[in-house]
């Protein structure tokens, strides 16, 4: 199995409203829980009780389309509100992410790292020291995880920042984006992922669910083609429609029914009938 | 800060329906996320996307009532469906729980362990080897965490098992409860917590949210009095009513408003007005 480490702050963890997009159920996609793999369901990265849709689900969904019959695992280690200083080598977040990745790597091969962070450093001239800190982190992760060539996909901060709500505080996001772009272009096996056209929740800082689906697709484009993604992809909306209409497998249908039952949305009788129907269908 | 390790299977993780009980917001209660502490909100133990109310929130709430001005942290490591064999010394769950506890113990003192497990071992005469496995686990945890005397509270399996739904498969839960009771009585600093009177979700296996609140209170009774709890507590319903009517602090009110806003239930304008109101009130 291949695995992908998710690190950064809230927009990597995901704050898109879950009810705003079609759910992604896919038995080829797993997420790390208690050091082991579970079938993926959003929220993938439960750093907060308000965690929602991030870029990882559509990234993984796109991956499975290119890898029929194979599995991918997501290692959620993003932390809302974290600054680059909190991702120092000896900080909790970095050490914990390495620890989680090592559990995952007992049963998978680390194939990539998705990074999205910087809103918490978009003020007070922090961009001036951001590059060195980011490069130090990437070097440290690759060393500690013994994955010197693992590709790192670096997402740009939302162009909607600096305008409204909580986003207003991110007055220097353009400078951070400049640094991000520079790091991606100069550092080996690092790829830039544009946030062009993505929109925000009413808080003005968190990428909305629909945009996160598009963002994940762009992260996958960068990963799969090993290239920077500087522009909106042609097929983003078309892909989302196709993904939403994907026919579920039998296991995925059982997963959906089990979810509904576990949340009290079905009686045991209804659940049993639905399960029989799933099992009897081809 | 004191901390509490939560281990076992789904009824420790929590599957009570969140909407069935009054939420517990309390700035003295924290939960471990990414190796650090966050203010607690349910679900505390996100082993599955359907995780809900377990015993930990009311345990911690009761603790804070006895420790004004102090803080407590919850370390969620319970894993739905896990059998005692999956809690072997070299298993993922045990190693991961130790790893999480060690992160927590960098900034807290481990004060107790809450254990609830056994539904997955309530068939096939597994009870015959359960005692040795449980004792081996407890010994190993205390050694690895350098906490030889840390109290372990062991919750009884629900008396509703063996009857309906998924609970039907737990045909030997009484034998497991016998073993649990024996371990609690004979092992040092282990305390038994009865499940008398607790009721289940429609699945017949998961303790419902209201019962989990009561269960947590019993776990706290065992912990705080260092004694077995063999019977229903007199004050369970009264306590729940009192907890539900507790006046929130300013920080807790801000947390509630922030949650609503983060979930898209308030516009930025509404959120700002509500926040002003909180800040202006005493």
Structure description:
- Chain A has 282 residues and is of the alpha/beta class.
- The first copy, chain A, folds into 2 domains: 245 residues, SGNH hydrolase (Rossmann fold), CATH 3.40.50.1110; 34 residues, no CATH class.
- Chain A is built from 9 helices and 7 strands, in the order βαββαβαβαβαβαααα.
- In chain A, helix 5 links the parallel strand 6 and strand 7.
- In chain A, helix 2 packs across helix 6 and helix 8 runs antiparallel to helix 9.
- The longest helix of chain A has 18 residues.
- The first copy, chain A, is globular.
- The two termini of chain A are 27 Å apart.
Average pLDDT score of chain A: 97
Structural class of chain A: alpha/beta
H-E order of chain A: EHEEHEHEHEHEHHHH
Strand count, sense and barrel status of the largest sheet of chain A are:
7 strands, mixed
GO molecular function (chains A, B): hydrolase activity
Keywords (chains A, B): Hydrolase
Organism (chains A, B): Metabacillus mangrovi
Domain Sialate O-acetylesterase (chains A, B): 4-224
Which features would summarize this protein structure in a list?
7 strands, Sialate O-acetylesterase (chains A, B), hydrolase (chains A, B), 282 residues, Rossmann fold, homodimer, SGNH_hydro_sf (chains A, B), SASA (chains A, B), alpha/beta
Set down the secondary structure blueprint.
The structure is a homodimer of 282-residue chains.
Chain A: E1 2-8, H1 10-13, E2 29-33, E3 36-39, H2 56-66, E4 72-76, H3 92-105, E5 109-116, H4 127-144, E6 152-155, H5 173-186, E7 190-193, H6 209-225, H7 236-244, H8 250-262, H9 268-280
Parallel strand pairs in A: 1-4, 1-5, 2-4, 5-6, 6-7
Antiparallel strand pairs in A: 2-3
Helix pairs in contact in A: 2-6, 4-5, 8-9
């Amino acid at each position: 199995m291949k695995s992908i480490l998710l690190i950064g702050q809230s927009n990597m963890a995901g704050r898109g409203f879950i009810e705003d997009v079609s759910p992604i159920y896919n038995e080829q996609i797993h997420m790390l829980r208690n050091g082991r793999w579970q079938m993926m369901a959003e929220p993938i990265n439960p750093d907060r009780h308000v965690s929602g849709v991030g870029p990882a689900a559509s990234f993984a969904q796109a991956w499975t389309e290119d890898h029929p019959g194979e599995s991918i695992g997501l290692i959620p280690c993003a932390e809302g509100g974290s600054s680059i200083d909190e991702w120092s080598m000896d900080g909790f977040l970095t050490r914990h992410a390495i620890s989680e990745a090592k559990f995952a790597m007992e049963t998978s091969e680390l194939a990539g790292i998705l990074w999205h962070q910087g809103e918490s450093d978009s003020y007070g001239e922090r961009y001036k020291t951001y590059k060195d800190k980011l490069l130090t982190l990437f070097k440290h992760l690759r060393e500690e995880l013994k994955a010197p060539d693992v590709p790192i996909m670096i997402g740009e901060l939302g162009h909607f920042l600096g305008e409204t709500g909580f986003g207003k505080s991110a007055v220097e996001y353009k400078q951070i984006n400049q640094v991000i772009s520079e790091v991606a272009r100069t550092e080996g096996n690092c790829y830039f992922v544009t946030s062009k056209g993505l929109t925000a929740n009413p808080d003005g800082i968190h990428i909305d669910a629909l945009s996160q689906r598009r963002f994940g697709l762009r992260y996958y484009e960068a990963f799969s083609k090993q290239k920077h993604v500087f522009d909106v992809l042609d097929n983003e909306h078309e892909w989302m429609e196709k993904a939403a209409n994907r026919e579920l497998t039998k296991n995925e249908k059982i997963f959906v029914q089990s979810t509904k039952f576990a949340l009290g949305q079905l009686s045991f009788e209804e659940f049993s009938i639905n399960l029989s129907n799933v099992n009897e269908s081809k």
